[in-house]
Amino acid sequence: MSPNTAYVDASQLGKSRQAVSQILETAASGGCGTTGGEGKASCGTSGGPDDMPEEIWNKVKNHPCYSEEAHHHYARMHVAVAPACNIQCNYCNRKYDCSNESRPGVVSQKLTPEQAVKKVVAVASEIPQMTVLGIAGPGDALANPKKTFDTFRMLQEQAPDIKLCLSTNGLALPELADEICKYNIDHVTITINMVDPAVGEKIYPWIFWNHKRVTGIEAATILHEQQMKGLEMLTERGVLTKINSVLIPGINDEHLIEVNREVKKRGAFLHNIMPLISEPEHGTVFGLTGQRGPSAQELKAVQDACMGGANLMRHCRQCRADAVGLLGEDRSEEFTLDKIDEMEVVYDLDKRKTYQDKVEAERQAQHAAKVAALAAASVDDGVDPDMKVLIAVATEGHGKVNQHFGHATEFQIFEVSKAQALFVGHRRVDLYCQGGYGEEETLPSVVSAINDCHAVLVSKIGACPRDELKAAGIEPVDEYAHEFIEKAALSWFGGYRERIAKGLVTHQVRGDAQIRQGAYSGTAEQAA
To answer: How far from chain centre, in Å, is Cα 168?
Structure first.
């Protein structure tokens, strides 16, 4: 199959040529960006060449997965209505009824379409900043087409303001592309881990194709062809696509650069390169055979190597298939079916819009603070102008430094320079403060998760973790509590450069960090 093969005729499609052209131009430019107008954040990262076209902006401005800036302010939820899957991945083990584990394919409760819609309406009435509903498993959304599209059909009728998304491995995508458009599903995630079947056969033991199981290079070839065809068809139909790729050291780490190039050619809007989750207790093939996941710096190196290709998403949390809330939090335990039955649900569109207008005002304030901080950071201080450092931030959302160190189950990581405070990822950690007391044995694991950072910004921190962080060479900082993250990060960095210029500190390169995949996943209520 030629990598430049075109499968569809855009003249036969319902979406306008202008919309298709905008997506292709945005992809070709490396993704959507921002020049500062109206607080328009780029999708995926916080920097880029141009503002995105208005039609695309309206699709991504309040989508927490498609806009890095939006993910601080808007929530999403997944409903687990799709249990079946048509392929097997060596990194996947779909567990059920596992409430304290956070990774794709894990759910506590499978739902019927009717139960799912009832849950969505209940969540949206209680969390008015919840703007996106996705079906991401626990199997494959398109391997369960009736359940998936029944859910979307009913939801369109009851909650028309919610954006609809689905995730798929792409095997069944070409035959269902028109059905996706029928239900106004404007955002689709495709997991693409290879564009070379020789690589693919190391990742996929089998696929279920034409009513039979296919294995080996033949299976990987079919999957590859279907993925490329489906991606092109969605682009031609004006659907925004995000590509998920799992980074598997020694198998597809270097190959993902080629994946990035190929999906960009076909109009992919975002490329999300995620670390392999390979701890043995998850029961995956890779976990049981000793395949390791990447370190933090290995993951960042591959992501950085793809800069200039398809625009990158770095704020993914590898969510459960029943996740609820802001990215990085999970409030699904608040909305179990028995609890929903006791709720008085009133879906008020006007109330939701009023609340979201307030959220947007806060977002504009965050953007203004960032612009002001960047202007202040441009002063020449005699220190290396190209210096970059990583810092960790404890946040509960709203784009602010507003979380106690001991309450964090993850830290957001920013790469700070004179030119920008760039979000580059997150690190899960074990919860340090439990039952009102610090668990000292968890501190080394927390430190190892942010070991490549020069500082950690928190709203408050106790004496013991403060001392241990200092001993590890990580500066604990609580003087920017409740300030916007970018402003706080740039202000700290300016002070750090000033100390270097005065000879008070010597800048040193930090080491690598450990990606903690098995970290405790507590609800916001438990962490408080």
So the answer is: 15
Tracing tokens 């309450």 back to the chain, one arrives at 407
Q: Is 463 helix (H, G, I), strand (E, B) or coil?
A: helix
Residues written for the chain: 528
Alpha carbon distances (Å) from 203 to 263, 277, 301, 329: 19, 13, 21, 29
SS3 content of the chain, % helix, strand, coil (to 5): 40, 15, 45
pTM above 0.90, yes or no: no
pLDDT one-digit tens code per residue, 25-55: 555 554 444 333 343 334 453 433 345 677 7
Quote the CA–CA distance of 519 and 492 in Å, as a whole number: 28
Q: How far apart are CA 347 and CA 121, in angstroms?
A: 7
Is 114 within 8 Å of 121 (Cβ atoms)? no
87 within 8 A of 171, measured Cβ to Cβ: yes
In the prediction, which pLDDT does 441 show?
A: 73
Contact (CB, 8 A) for 189 and 243: yes
386: its two tokens: 């190209």
* Low-confidence spans in the chain with pLDDT less than 50: 1-15, 30-43, 45-50, 96-101, 519-528
Residue 293 neighbours by CB under 8 Å, 6+ apart? 247, 249, 275, 276, 277, 278, 515, 517
State how far the alpha carbon of 169 is from the alpha carbons of 86, 129, 166, 260, 514, in Å: 9, 29, 10, 16, 28
